[in-house]
């Protein structure tokens, strides 16, 4: 039987000696490479009116479109108001300059201690494990991030690991990106092995959207290194609407839990996506059905190109007050803003 991640091909004339290793892409890697990257294709597949196309092409020129098939399949055909579509459809408004909206809204450049190493908070560091994402979310605060300067070579990784090794105050490593799970399992297994050799490191946290947009990412290879590490594991998913959680996502979450991961979710409060008490309540309920606890509800980071997603603070507080009346406390996410230079997220 040929496995997808590592196959052996045998020549029929000499099977005993001519065994040639061949690496085939995993199912998720194939899906990643086949993601939609053309606004015209997205509009055509969803049966959208041609009137959406000029704006989509303008936004795409600023931040390229990327939508995997498994995520597309959860959108309603012919509905330009679909809450999943809103998260990925480029708009002409992304080209408007809006006061206060900047390219590095969290001032991450000031906290970068080396290529791919960001140290913002006490006790934990963030490693950019991959510059790529499986989906390009239009509101992303890293849509202008200089990934080219933060894609470490092996030697640079060694220096970052050395930094962690020499700082006993660091107890948690956060793998981020891009999406850390866009890296290959071979690379991730190498990195985790190096991290777990640092004696004062207790926890490994993954910030990822891949198990949501391509649930097949949670395959045996991933579960192998995740399940084997001595580090406590926290997977923080990023889901903004209940419609993102289908059976395949629920199954992927179950596999992550079985590997010993604690599952949390962070959402962004987004205009025309989840800006109602009903939408937020359904999201929390659906997350819990998938075994995931709501963790943060972030207000939008003021990144250039995303101002049309903003929900004012007062409205955000009212929504959460309404949500509090609907849900038990453990399903209520914390409404927060990240303010550059603060020692933690700031509750609203
Ligand atoms: S980093 Fe997260 S929010 Fe930003 S584009 Fe990638 S998946 Fe979306």
TrEMBL record:
The keyword Iron applies. Keywords: 4Fe-4S, Iron, Iron-sulfur, Isomerase, Metal-binding, Pyridoxal phosphate, S-adenosyl-L-methionine. Residues 119-342 form the Radical SAM core domain. Pfam families: Radical_SAM (PF04055). PANTHER family: L-LYSINE 2,3-AMINOMUTASE, LYSINE 2,3-AMINOMUTASE-RELATED. Belongs to the radical SAM superfamily. KamA family. This is L-lysine 2,3-aminomutase. The lineage of its organism: Bacteria, Pseudomonadati, Pseudomonadota, Gammaproteobacteria, Oceanospirillales. The gene is epmB.
